[in-house]
Amino acid sequence: MKLSAISPALLGLAASVHAYTVNYTTVTGYFLQDETATDASTFDYTAVNFGLLNRTYPADKKLKNAESLTQWERFYNQVQELNDESHGDVEYKVLFLGRHGEGWHNAAQTYYGTPAWNCYWAELKGNGTATWYDAELTENGVDQALVAHNFWQKEIDEQRIHTPDNYFVSPLARTLQTANYTFTDLKFPKGSAEFKPLIKELFRESISIHTCDHRHDRAYIHEMFPTWPIEAGFTEQDELWNGVTGETNDAQDQRSTKALDEVFFTSASVKKDTFVSVTSHSGEISSILRVVGHRTFSLNTGAVIPVLVRAEKLVHEKPDTTTSTWTVSAHCTSPPVTSVAACVCQSSAAPVTTALVTSF
């Protein structure tokens, strides 16, 4: 059963005023995470220099001091060279995709088991002990974000890595906290872009009926981090979550494409802004990877991977206005009888498709 209960216009998925689309591809050969032999489940970005391969680059030949530069300095030069040699309709950017640290919803899912979580507990705000509506970080989640902070500082000090030129963050609490713990108080190199992330609706987690996917209102978010900019058009209330319908992969990929379209080709000097940080979620990062043609690569909580992306404008007469419908998810109205392999509702609590939580 499918419904279009949420207007695609709310996601900004209506036809663009620009008479072009953007084709995204992953440029492989630079990172371990691009290679099929790399196991995502055991991948530790802090042990392998963010996955950057130890290799030479074509652009090294133009450097007089290549031997004295670090791998990251030479890679940055290589990306700049790719941009310099490309025509105006092509851009290269390195997306640092960071997943938030462990949230209370992650801990609850582990505690209850995935089937029971999906079919009942996730539709509640919490259980009286923990709250997972727009979940915040657990202590372990904070520690994971601090691991990222310390590793960034190590890369700055030892690899002289070029820090992000632009920062974006999902509006959900766990990502806001993760970005804050990760980047605040880093000793940035002179001339680096200031860490002041743009809070961006379209980089939020896959929108499901789970309350952890329902964001707080704009005023609450602004109060959390009053100096961080919030993108224009950001609504006061969360108009995308309703507790009944959720995005399909196709719908989310359309959203992710639009988000990337708002990151690439945005200003005259954009080619110089080649490193971009996006602090987001497992489901949204998976969607971004699909959009840019990267292989499936699931991130553990708190993990970060860079991906080199090539974007090319494709001019056409009429923009594509196709939208994808959302789906309704059935769930129990009381704790399930069993959920070892699948959720089984109690006989007195047959599956329903109405929201368990109707007000926030």
From TrEMBL:
Q: Which SUPFAM superfamilies match?
A: Phosphoglycerate mutase-like
Q: Is Signal tagged as a keyword?
A: yes
Q: Which domain of life is it from?
A: Eukaryota
Among SMART domains, the record links this protein to: PGAM
GO molecular function, a single term: phosphatase activity
Q: Please give the InterPro entries that the UniProt record associates with this protein.
A: His_Pase_superF_clade-1, His_PPase_superfam, PGM_Phosphatase
Q: What residue stretch is flagged as signal peptide?
A: 1-19
The UniProt entry, under CDD domains, shows: HP_PGM_like
The alphabetized UniProt keywords are: Signal
* One GO CC term, this protein: cytoplasm
What is this protein's record name? Phosphoglycerate mutase-like protein
Q: Which organism is it from?
A: Penicillium malachiteum
